[in-house]
Predict the structure.
Amino acid sequence: NTAEAFINGATHFGYQGLECDVKVTVDSQLVCWHDDHLKRVGIDSIMIPATTLEQLQSLSLVQTRKDVTYTAKICTVDEYLAICKEYNVFPVIELKWGIGLNNNDMTLFPALYALIEKHGLVEEAIILTSMKQSLEYIRSNYPQLTCQWLRHKVQDEEYTWCQDWGVDLSVAHTSVTEDVIAHSKQIKKDVATWTVNDIADYERVKELGCKYVTTDCLEINK
């Protein structure tokens, strides 16, 4: 969820799309981050919903993986979308619960849509979330956007809801089966899956017919 990581995904890995997670700052700015906190990058005292964008941008984010230390700055959704446009990849924007972006309050979504429109990515963008009422709001007010419903498992009655609201499924790879794909084909909806970091899992879900596969770092031979 940093600019450096997004650019690396587009250039080194050659991914066709980039997923971000959206969090809301105390001054109602949209940033890319998975958690409310910054503990993964060594900062225990900061909570994004209680911090301004300016304060967040002043922080150096540090993480060590496989004995390599990486440093970065927090990335705004605006910057993320600019990267998607520059590197010709489609954005997958996962909505996490936040003030103005939740099942009961979507008042910040018009601002998010304005950013997507600003970068000319309305047709390419995918909105992903587990928040059902948020998806109903988006489909009612922004029918031009592609939406995916994030599910760990899919119940039979949920296919009907997806069909009625025109929403695709995004299912944990451990729950993707022939039955899930067959049900989705019946209602003419696509299936995405996450988080696939093993080549054998990738080959399985590809063979089953998943349209999108989300990974952290999988390298696929072209």
The longest strand covers residues 17-24. The chain has eight helices and 13 strands. The helical segments are 3-11, 53-57, 77-86, 109-118, 132-141, 156-165, 178-186, 199-208. The two ends are 25 Å apart (CA to CA).
